[in-house]
TrEMBL record:
Keyword terms: Membrane, Transmembrane, Transmembrane helix
Identification of the protein by name: Putative membrane protein
TM segment ranges: 16-40, 46-70, 82-102, 108-133
A Pfam cross-reference name: DUF2231
Ranges for domain DUF2231: 14-132
Domain of life, per lineage: Bacteria
Amino acid sequence: MAVTVDRRYQRELHPLHAFLLAGMVPLFLGAMLSDIAYAFSYQIQWINFASWLIAGGLVFGACALVWAVIDLFRADRLERFPLVYALLLLATWILGFINALVHAKDAWAIMPAGLALSVIVVVLAGAATWAGFSGIRARGDV
């Protein structure tokens, strides 16, 4: 006799939303690693890399933030902490934007503020991604 397990998901994250949310983290992480590389080598090109990676992370983050705000107002969504998720995304985007403004300065002038902001943004992006994906739970009723 075969046993079938009926899995019900509390919430499904749309694949495009998941792509935008998960794509933000490596971009901000790459910017942080570029800042670390600049701190050790003083090659100005690392700051250019970091600036472009931050810009890409902001684009992905803005799209994920818009999606999260829309999901906040949808009545059929049952998430564990939708407001915390949206606020984490908002904080990530705001600090990422400030980080982009800091990176727009001269390469010598951005240290150590640029590196510190990059670390904070990576931590916030990771927390936002965790909050976004943590609402997905499968329940099996036998």
